[in-house]
Amino acid sequence: MLRELANGIRPCFAPASWMIISDQEIVGMCSLVKPPTDGAIDIGYGIAESCRSKGHASGAVADLLLWARANEKVKTCKAETSVSNTSSQWVLETNGFVQTGTRMDAEDGEMICWMVSVEA
Questions:
Q1: What are the backbone angles phi and psi of residue 87, rounded to the nearest 5°?
Q2: CATH number, domain containing residue 18
Q3: What is the pLDDT of residues 64-90, one digit of tens each?
Q4: pTM of the model
Q5: What domain count does the chain have?
Q6: Which domain holds residue 45?
Q7: Along the 120 residues of the chain, how does pLDDT read in single tens digits?
């Protein structure tokens, strides 16, 4: 799934996905979840269950924001979390994201929408 997602984004924007590595082990993935529009990128991330609650997601999102701030094409970064995923909400809040609203997703239910500016 991630390969198909990245292959659909790479023709218009690259890179589109990153491995999250700790101690020479892949612990998760981080990626754009759709092609960027108007300087906004939408991100998603996931950490292997056995590696959660160790700061990997927070660090990966922080690194992704550093990359975004150095990329003149990117103005804002967006993300979504399930209303029940308090761990992911904490990751975004820790990295300066603010809630911008909610939406309903057919598969995941109610989602919180987040955004942070990355313009210099």
A1: -65, -45
A2: 3.40.630.30
A3: 999 999 988 899 999 999 999 999 999
A4: 0.88
A5: 1
A6: 2-117
A7: 666 776 777 777 777 778 899 999 999 999 888 888 999 999 999 999 999 999 999 999 999 999 999 988 899 999 999 999 999 999 999 999 999 999 999 998 999 999 999 986
Residue 14 near residue 6 (C-beta atoms within 8 A): no
Q: 92, 111 in Cβ contact below 8 A? A: no
Dig out the tokens for 97 from the structure: 């994201």
All residues at 6 or more sequence positions from 7 whose CB lies less than 8 Å from its CB, including other chains: none
Distance CA 53, CA 79 (A): 19
Give per-residue burial for 44-66: e unless 16+ CB within 10 Å, then b.
bbbbeeebeeeebbbebbeebbe
* Locus of tokens 């997602």: 5
CA distance 109 to 89: 15
